[in-house]
Amino acid sequence: MASDDFRTLAIVGAGLIGSSFGLALKEAGFGGERLGVSSPAALDAAMRIGAISRAVSLEEAAARADLIYLAQPVARILETLRALGPLIRPGTLVTDAGSTKAVIVQTAAEYLPRGAFAGGHPMAGKEQRGAEAADASLFRRRPYVLTPDPAAPPPRLEEFKSWLARIGARVVEMTAAEHDTAVAFTSHLPQILSTALAETLQRQKNPDFERVFGPGLLDMTRLALSDPDLWASIFASNSAKILAALDLLLSALGDLHHTIQRNGDIAPLFQSAAAFASSIRKPDDETTS
Amino acid sequence: MASDDFRTLAIVGAGLIGSSFGLALKEAGFGGERLGVSSPAALDAAMRIGAISRAVSLEEAAARADLIYLAQPVARILETLRALGPLIRPGTLVTDAGSTKAVIVQTAAEYLPRGAFAGGHPMAGKEQRGAEAADASLFRRRPYVLTPDPAAPPPRLEEFKSWLARIGARVVEMTAAEHDTAVAFTSHLPQILSTALAETLQRQKNPDFERVFGPGLLDMTRLALSDPDLWASIFASNSAKILAALDLLLSALGDLHHTIQRNGDIAPLFQSAAAFASSIRKPDDETTS
């Protein structure tokens, strides 16, 4: 290893993503300390599964770590960035795993020194929450978006990227705005649909629903189990792009409604939709969650 | 086995469901002939995997089989029922695996003798099509809806139910109307949402989408790979109930839109939706498809 390798990692927010990152780095051969900053319950669980090696305060994390990994909901990441401002030492890389990037990147630029921060977003997850569900292979073969500021690239970004490669993630670089547009469609819209579908069925109070369903309904309602706190943050920090995506979805739904109503030909719509569904599936990529 | 056990099965439509039924019965110990009526290509594939033992015409199937299993799209099942009318022998049980039930049950009542027919719908499937994707365990632990006419119960229904139990299916009995209402919400609405979502993303032509997505988008677009022919039949035969369900979904989507727009509290909606998503999941039931 090069002499400037990260020696101490601090994970702020020891939930599913933070704890999975700690486990993944340990398995990939990271030999340094893995400090954890989180609630007492989360720290207990993360210690128990070996995701972190020691629980510390944010102050101690900032004083000792040369890689600080913020794995909290977006609104909490913003608070942590403000708190880190006066604490951060030269040469430390701060990165995050927040679900939207523009607001976070902007706040980091305001509170942290130039070159200290690179935004990130692992496109990985599952419906279970917390350190108990952590998984060292969570990032494997999944996209991991990085949104470094081209005007102030962090000196230690390459080192961080080499660790992402070692835990199996597929690094994708783009701007924060490009990321937020993409996830409005690929992540936020699917979440809204899954929740709206489950809520629609819940409202009917029809006991037959629990007796009569197939695997498709399980697929389509899995996201509806997501954490509302996490999503409140996401909606608040990307609402304009999300609402624009939702309007386009409503238009496609309207086309289907109209076609079904007049008993028209659904094949063109189905074929076009299937073309997209196929485009994101490659034989070695399809994994069930 | 009782002397009145089914001796000869005929499967009409040797696609995924028909071929899976043939394989499942064979594995469960059905020792009689398994005749197949389908297109030459489908029959070839079904013979190759052992789902059927011989290819015949519908006339020969009607002359020889005492259990006729219609596993075609809804519109084709209606045609087959009309054709079977003059061919059917006393004591034969005709059943189907069509995705809607009211139109099929009504057509069977019109063309077949009293007590010859029981409608059915296995709540099982996957995105692959055809006999090549057939799976003897497709029905295992899945609901299998039966909608027999209480005024004319088929004498051999219990015998059929005992075979369904042997292939691991969970038999659920209800009226055709109850079935069609339930599947409008639990199957047809999810299909429409998945297709509308995939179509919305396809229309953007944004190359970032294929680089930036997580497992949730795979879940939410899996149904978009479904066969348009199958779905044209389903929409045509259940459109009133489907459009009513879609209107309710649009209302829930509107509530989410409004809440996001005014940065309101999403927790009540998320919690209510999650309650439904949890209600259809039991530890031993959740299977990934």
Give a short overview.
Chain A has 289 residues and is of the alpha/beta class. Chain A has helices at 16-27, 40-48, 58-64, 74-84, 102-111, 157-166, 176-204, 215-221, 228-237, 239-261, 267-279; strands at 8-12, 33-37, 54-55, 67-70, 93-96, 117-122, 143-147, 170-173.
How would you characterize this protein structure?
2 copies of one chain form a homodimer. Helix content of chain A is 49%, strand content 12%. Chain A is α/β, with parallel strands linked by helices and 289 residues long. The first copy, chain A, has an 8-stranded mixed sheet, with helices on both faces.
N- to C-terminal distance of chain A: 35 Å
As laid out across the biggest beta sheet of chain A, the strand order is: 3-2-1-4-5-6-7-8
Q: How would a crystallographer describe the biggest sheet of chain A? A: 8 strands, mixed
Helix content of chain A: 40-55%
Oligomer state of the chains in this structure: homodimer
Largest interface: A-B, 96 and 96 residues
**Coarse structural class of chain A:** alpha/beta
Provide the gyration radius of chain A in Å.
21 Å
- Write the H/E string of chain A, N to C: EHEHEHEHEHEEHEHHHHH
Average predicted local confidence, pLDDT of chain A: 94
Q: Please tally the β strands of chain A and state the result.
A: 8
Low-confidence runs of chain A (pLDDT<50, min 5 residues)? 285-289
Tell me what portion of residues of chain A adopts beta-strand conformation.
5-15%
Entry keywords:
homodimer, 289 residues, alpha/beta, eight-stranded mixed sheet, globular, disordered C terminus
